[in-house]
Amino acid sequence: MSNTTTHRVTMKEWPLEELLAKRNAVLSRWPSGAALRDLEESFAYRRTLPDTKNMPALIRRAESTGQSLVTPRAGVATVEEFTMLLQALEEAGADFLPATIDSLSRHHRYAEVTALIEESKSKGRSMLNGTPIINWGVQAVRRFNEAVREPILTYYAAFDGRFLAEMTLGGGLAGIVSSPMVDLLCYNRDDSVSELISNWQYVERLTALYEAQGFEIHRGMPSYPIGSVIPPSTSVVATCIDAMISASQGAKNVNLLTRHVGSALQDVAGIHAQERVARKYCALIGRADVKITSEFNQYVGEFPLDEAEAVALISAGAIIGLLGGAVLINVKTPDEGWGLPTVEGNVRGTKIVKFLAELFRNQRYPSSPELDEEEAMIEEEACTMLDATLDLGDGDLAVGLPRALEAGVVDFPYSPARVVHGSCIAARDVTGAVRWVDPGQIPFSKKVRDFNRDQLAQRSLREGRDIGYEMALDDAEAGIRNVAGRDIAASALQRVR
Questions:
Q1: Within a 10 A sphere around the Cβ of 351, how many other Cβ atoms?
Q2: Cα gap 312→296, rounded to integer Å
Q3: What pLDDT, on a 0 to 100 scale, did the predictor assign at position 481?
Q4: Cα dist. 180→161, 215, 220, 221, 359 in Å?
Q5: Residue 332 to residue 67: CA distance in whole angstroms
Q6: Which among 185, 258, 184, 169 is positioned nearest to 218, based on CA atoms?
Q7: Where are the alpha helices (DSSP H) in 147-263?
Q8: Pairing of β 434-438 and β 425-428
Q9: What is the DSSP letter of 15?
Q10: What is the pLDDT of residue 480?
Q11: pLDDT at 4 over 70
């Protein structure tokens, strides 16, 4: 359902009256919204919850001890099965728990969800790819929340995530992992950027309202989770835009997800650079008080079908995130390549990464001139795009972002969104790090352009071909398997055949 935006969308914090005026329409989309209308009742319920449900406090404790917290992604169609799944994950050692929302709920197709819940009951297996909390209603959300000790976060991508945010917070869950940029870049072809920002300003203003009552709310920003050859600076730009939108409405606890690209050096540099850039730009809009932390998102592309290879990929991603100092680690499963993960797969993945988190506690990737250079380059690339966006909006991100996307000065490879220029491409160098082959209209300095070309030159020489589109296409076909310095072109052709 569209939330038609008639006013000019800016980064100005919404007056509380604007949020309250919009709530009735949001909560009227399905009968379960009626139980959420009384905010005072939701506040009173949250006051009964134990301290263990406070995700930002859990993160602070983890940071103070050098611990990284782990969780998978999971969700099924019925409350009973989902409660048992949460309990199994908690028993396996997950430090916080997921409620991944099904794709139909993300698009407000609640009548279809109702039918599939009943079909799931009759067939004895989930016919949904996630957790339909809108159809279940707030009392059911509170029941499964109370059935476990650890905090629960909802995970989803949606053009309009307002109703899901209301159910998450009214149900007493610890926070939301979703954002405008993840939906814009990955899930919808025809989003209006201004309308998208307005929808998510509602979510952030609602979050701030709960925090003003003394409840700390976790806000996770999923970056640009496309499983292809994407320079890390694009993820930094996406999460920093999300962080600025969130902070501008008063959210206080923002967590930024970083993707597993495949080069340990570049991945660690991405974690470090992302936090610094986000703090810089949140301070620039007058929100220096926002707490910024990182989560490392394990590889999101095609997963190996071979179990040993899948475990190796899970372990590699976990170790990189741990050495990079990410306080949260997202867990994949050994059966990821075969379809929706099973309970057993989620438990195994959680145990693998939990054990690694203990082994690598307080260990960090060593400093080096190479790491410093990589971080500096990611920061410069990201700041170039963010500065161009602010310039086009006369200092206002919400005004500048649609213009920046149209001009291509902010750009993302392989996005399906029509508003994204899509004239930039990237490829891997011989170490597996992702470099710009052609940044399109992004106004990078000569230093940045030369650095990227120089890093690709060694591969060009070794393979005896030019740096160009064929190299980028081969890497996109090869996925994660091309990071070991092998003959990438030959590997890609073999996979295609």
A1: 15
A2: 16
A3: 62
A4: 9, 23, 11, 9, 36
A5: 19
A6: 169
A7: 162-170, 180-186, 193-212, 232-248
A8: antiparallel
A9: P
A10: 63
A11: no
